[in-house]
Amino acid sequence: MKNLKIILLLLLVAISYDIQAQELDVNLQLRPRFEYRNGYKTLIPEGTEATSQISQRSRLNFNYKQDQLTVKLTFQNVRTWGDVPTTATADKNGVAVFEAWAKYDISEKWSARAGRQVLSYDNQRIMGEIDWLQQGQSHDALMVSFHPKNHQLDMGFAYNSDAENTFQTPYTVANYKAMQYAWYHTNADKLGVSLLFLNTGYEYANLTKKLLVDYKQTFGTYLTYKNNKIDGNLSFYGQTGKSADKQVSAWDGAVNLAYSITESFKAGIGYEYLSGKDMNDKSTVIKSFNPIFGTNHAFNGYMDYFYVGGGHQNSVGLQDANLKFTYNVKKWQFALMPHVFLSAADVVVADKKMDSYLGTEVDFTAGFNFKKDITLTGGYSQMFGTTTLEVLKAPGYAGHTNNWAWLMISVNPRIFTWKK
Predict the structure, then answer these.
(1) Domain spans of the chain?
(2) d(CA 268, CA 336)
(3) Matching Pfam families, A to Z (predicted)?
(4) Considering the domain 23-56+161-419 in this protein, what is its CATH number?
């Protein structure tokens, strides 16, 4: 808190000087969320009771602009209500920096941004903010952008260490050691086209305990189409390279189509295939697709049974056939999304191949714009699992009522605006 006061004081002193074309915007976000978990992320084991808790994100955002320079600084605290006593002298998680970057517009077509920042592209399947997580996701990176009319090319670079070391030491943070990417986007009438190349290097120690970095490449395209009634998207990504001295060969493909029946009601259908590896496959090749930095909560059901937090990675993959119905009226938004899940590769138990059907999940969400800067959202989800899903989520029990409910309030006031 002392450091925060010093930063606020420095900002107020800085804007008092006679420098032209300055803007400062300060806004706040408070986001408490209640959750009832009775089979969330995994089938609940027999004899296990449900749990409930309230988490909260508190963010303070500073956005400053001076001529060609733009700076953003975001502080946040993430907590579970009650994780420290009422008389605590310090928070469990403290105050962290979520974003801290500076961007300079070199010209009308070129800009560069360096620091802790969000890297989010397209539908966030491969690179996203993961805003559902109270802590979100941001990277320490340098990003250079070339953006002539109707084109954009972003190139990013990152290199990580866990301290200012004087000689080589293992990188022990659960993160990549190095990363490079290029993302290109253009529009042609009603069609949007994106291309992505992502190179991620993870450090590991070989048998002689020598520290090495293996690089995995993720590459592909994301296409969108939209007119007055129809909108859809098509994506395909491949993965190759190496990970911990193992060859990688995986892919992901998805298609989604929606039709606006009325101005308020829209119906959609979608399908995604994420490659996996047969459980009786003895090869060392990694055949299971990994969405890397994707906002996985937005895909494959809101109960987060697949890919969220590393779950289901290096497994049998997934097929997700889904429908989506949305209805918006005045200040209300409703959505109903059933999913049918199947494994992409064989689930094998005692040399017996099991049915690929994993289960059906039904998600319902509702949102209400209570007032300016105040939004109320909530949802209910239920998983109807199978014995095949029990194999993947052992010791979970599919016969239990596996469900999840949540309610969240988001308060986002602008507390200070200054322009000169």
Answers:
(1) 23-56+161-419
(2) 10
(3) Alginate_exp (PF13372)
(4) 2.40.160.100
